[in-house]
Design goal:
Elements (H helix, E strand, L loop, with lengths): L9 E5 L3 H10 L16 H8 L12 E5 L2 H14 L5 E5 L8 H11 L4 E6 L6 H8 L5 E5 L4 H49 L11 H17 L4 E8 L2 H8 L1 H19 L3 E7 L2 E7 L3 H10 L5 E3 L2 E3 L3 E7 L6 H18 L4 E3 L2 H22 L3 E10 L5 E12 L3 E3 L1 H10 L3 H16 L6 E5 L2 H4 L4 H12 L6 E6 H4 L3 H13 L3 E7 L6 H7 L3 E4 L1 H6 L7 H13 L3 E5 L4 H10 L3 E3 L9 H11 L8
Parallel strand pairs: 1-2, 1-3, 3-4, 4-5, 11-12, 14-16, 16-17, 17-18, 18-19, 19-20, 20-21
Antiparallel strand pairs: 6-8, 6-11, 7-8, 9-10, 13-14, 13-21, 14-15
Length: 624
């Protein structure tokens, strides 16, 4: 508590004799501010007996003198003065004040009320020794004695000294209290700051969920509680499918809003059955008791049923989940590793998949990580290559185009299927480098056959880069490629992720002269509305429809429908995967424009492709 610097210098005089009280007034008259000296008191004689000759002139040091005649009155006066904020600095107490308490008892009680007050015990008797009084009153450095009769100058000097002392002490106490209060405020601010820093160090600033540090602390508590309950604890890793596409398409502001919305839904889904943490980016972790895992997992997956609304955008979101735990030894680092492996495999299986960890998944994960490292080296060291497969006119006798097919002959594992290593590139952030390598090499090779169109497969992840179109244009300029002789093949399922953002990139490349083909048509769910918006040049019928021609009598109906649709939209129709004469004859009958398959040519090297073109290449200006 802060002690104020008091403005009034007050003293209290307690004596049961009125004449004594008046004598005090006279002796202190010239010490009291704004008080005239009354030298003609009715008690001059008594004053002379007690205090001797008249007072000497002193500077005013007292603002107010209060008198009382009983010990109880003195105690109450001190209490009231302190309560009013104007306490006494000095009190003069006569020892004997019948019939109430004596001066010593009054002094003891006053000391409990006002510890810093200066108390003067006045006595004309020897029945109270100073040591006895000090033992009862305490604080001996603020306890003084006057023995009657005493000298007026002595009393005046004592009063002056004690009032000045009290004024100085109160000022020092006030300043000290202010410093203490400031230090306490500083300590409190530091405590709040430390608490805030402690909280911030354990919370994700975007979502206010636990961060990795907070997860570790909470997991330890959850594991201890689970062991106490004879239960297990499980850890789930959750990742938003294609979140990078949201950021690249709509910007990081919308991405952050989506993360906050997902965080809220996850917290609602988990409820009191566990807790949620954000590890960074679009990665979340959930911890719960193993007995509640199925319930929590079902609620989490259900949160993705409806679109996530972020401003004007309604974004469909799915989760890939990997989870681990349930054993007796709840080791967070091992659980995190296992959940991460399970998540990796879940994402490899598609979108909206939850996968539990199993020891054999370690082998898959390790294999893929080693292949990813080897693939990165193969890209950097130019150890990949392209094969080419001809696209034939409908009679199968003339080459009207070529498709570039990426190949990788691994030093240890031999030729690895593109389905495997392209997926590894997509999962490990290598698609940009891999795609640029393919474009650069295909553009270079296409200069060897400028009269036919070269088709190049593109991944949707390449289109997720806002500057992808500019990258393609720059590579084409560097490699001397002719835009009108390059055709990009995009799978039907890849485009349905964000058609608007995709079309922005496509339009830039179309205006530059590049052609586009919709690959694997019929395997996905692209609508006619999509096709009209895409404004592509070609449809490639999925090979599954072509394969069925040899075994299912009515299988040509779907192909006839696709051909009719393509003709109505002015598109070239290509059938891929043609392997026998039966398929060829039917495709000629239904009206396809272009064929591709082992019946005509298998994929081959660039030099072999040049020989085929020299032998069979009879391009027509209107051919696709």
């Amino acid at each position: 508590m802060t002690l104020p610097t008091y403005e009034k210098r007050r003293i209290l005089i307690c004596d049961d004799e009125a004449g004594i009280l008046d004598a005090y007034h006279r002796i202190f008259a010239d010490l009291v501010a704004d008080t005239a000296d009354d030298a003609n008191s009715d008690y001059d004689a008594l004053s002379a007996d007690l205090f001797g000759d008249g007072p000497a002139t002193e500077a005013a040091v007292i603002d107010e003198i209060v008198t009382c005649r009983q010990g109880e009155e003195a105690v109450e006066a001190v209490r009231a003065a302190k309560a009013s904020g104007q306490p006494f600095g000095v009190v003069f107490l006569d020892v004997r004040m019948p019939p109430g308490i004596d001066g010593v008892e009054a002094a003891r009680q006053i000391r409990t009320i006002e510890p810093i007050i200066n108390i003067v015990i006045v006595t004309g008797y020897s029945d109270h020794r100073p040591t006895e009084i000090a033992g009862k009153v305490g604080t001996v450095d603020r306890l003084f004695y006057l023995v009657k009769p005493f000298d007026a100058d002595e009393v005046r000097q004592m009063a002056t000294t004690l009032v000045n002392r009290w004024t100085s002490d109160s000022r020092i106490a006030s300043e000290l209290a202010a410093q203490v209060e400031a230090l306490e405020a500083l300590n409190e601010a530091l405590r709040v700051s430390e608490a805030s820093a402690h909280q911030a160090a354990r919370r994700d600033p975007l979502t206010d969920l636990l961060n990795r540090t907070g997860l570790e602390e909470q997991f330890d508590r959850a594991a201890r509680q689970a062991r106490a309950n004879n239960a297990g604890v499980s850890l789930l890793y959750l990742d938003l499918d294609r979140f990078k596409l949201v950021n690249d398409t709509h910007g990081h502001g919308i991405g952050d809003q989506l993360i906050r919305e997902v965080a809220g839904r996850l917290s609602t889904a988990v409820m009191d059955d566990g807790f949620v943490a954000r590890l960074g980016g679009d990665e979340f972790a959930i911890v719960c008791e193993t007995a509640k895992l199925d319930t929590v997992l079902a609620r989490i997956l259900a949160t993705a049923d409806g679109p996530f609304v972020t401003g004007p955008h309604h974004l469909p979101v799915s989760f890939s989940i990997g989870y681990s735990g349930g054993g007796d030894d709840a080791d967070l680092q091992e659980y995190m590793r296992q959940a991460d492996v399970a998540l990796y495999v879940a994402k490899d299986a598609g979108r909206g998949i939850a996968r539990a960890f199993d020891p054999y998944l370690d082998q898959i994960f390790l294999r893929d990580q080693m292949l990813a490292q080897d693939l990165k080296e193969a890209i950097d060291e130019n150890r990949l290559y392209l094969n080419y497969q001809p696209l034939m006119c409908i009679d199968g006798k003339r080459v009207t185009g070529v498709e570039a097919l990426l190949r990788w002959d691994h030093d240890v594992h031999g030729v690895i299927s593109p389905e495997i290593f392209v997926a590894i590139a997509e999962k490990n952030g290598l698609m940009g480098e891999l795609g640029d390598w393919v474009l650069r090499r295909a553009f270079e090779d296409a200069r060897a056959w400028p009269d036919v169109i070269t088709s190049i497969n593109l991944s949707v992840l390449q289109f997720s880069k806002p500057d992808f179109a500019e990258t393609v244009l720059a590579l084409a300029r560097d490699m001397g490629a002719i835009a009108g002789k390059i055709e990009f093949e995009i799978t039907e399922t890849a485009m349905t992720n964000d058609i608007a953002a995709f079309l922005v990139q496509v339009e830039i490349l179309r205006e530059a002269g590049f052609r586009f083909a919709l690959d694997d048509f019929g395997s996905g769910y692209a609508s006619i509305g999509y096709l009209s918006r895409l404004n592509f040049h070609k449809l490639k019928i999925d090979r599954s429809f072509v394969s069925a021609l040899s075994t299912k009598p009515d299988s040509d109906r779907m192909i006839r429908s696709i051909v009719s649709l393509g003709a109505a939209m002015g598109l070239t129709i290509t059938a891929e995967g043609v392997e026998d004469v039966i398929q060829h004859d039917i495709l000629k009958t239904v009206g396809c424009d272009q064929l591709q398959g082992f019946l005509f040519h298998k994929p081959c090297s660039r030099s072999e492709m040049e020989e085929i073109l020299n032998r069979e290449g009879m391009p027509r200006p209107h051919a696709a």
